Amino acid sequence: MQKKCFFVLVAVLVLAVSSFVVAGEFKVYPGAKLDERATNDASELAKQANMGSELKVYTTDDAFDMVASFYKGIGTEYKMPSGPTKGPQCAFILFDEEKDLSTSKLWAKIQRPAWELYKEDIKEMKLRDITVIILVEK
């Protein structure tokens, strides 16, 4: 009987550890491509703001809902306390066990349309009709 309890305990621990490891994974949305120019621009702005984070920017032509659903399946959606606002569709996904963006070490913002994707877009407040995935890692 003790041997059976031991094996059950080991199985439970293995499952608990494996689900903890999976919770911290980011996967690139199928078909999304790393936008190196946008990544460099965003990283430069993050350094100027002393964010202490590494950023990667991915883009896809797929609909916002498809991309957001994909990430909601592998992470936890974070709802901004301010509630819905006008503007681009936007979702925040946490990929670790943290409860908000300020403490999370790995999270993403999914948005469509892409707003101010490149440095030169900022002055013009330019929108681009694509879905953007901004990965933030502290």
A few lines on this structure:
By secondary structure, the chain is α+β, with helices and mostly antiparallel strands.
Account of the protein in words:
The chain has one domain. Helix content is 36%, strand content 26%. It has 138 residues and is an alpha+beta fold. The protein has a six-stranded antiparallel sheet with strand order 1-2-8-5-4-3, with helices on both faces.
Order of SSEs, N→C?
Answer: HEHEHEEEEHEE
Content-based structural category:
alpha+beta
Number of separate structural domains? 1
Largest sheet: 6 strands, antiparallel
As laid out across the biggest beta sheet, the strand order is 1-2-8-5-4-3
Number of helices: 4
Tell me the layout of helices and strands.
Layout: H1 2-23, E1 33-34, H2 36-48, E2 54-60, H3 64-72, E3 76-78, E4 89-94, E5 106-112, E6 114-115, H4 119-124, E7 127-128, E8 131-137
Antiparallel strand pairs: 1-2, 2-8, 3-4, 4-5, 5-8, 6-7
Properties at a glance:
138 residues; alpha+beta; six-stranded antiparallel sheet; 36% helix; globular; disordered N terminus
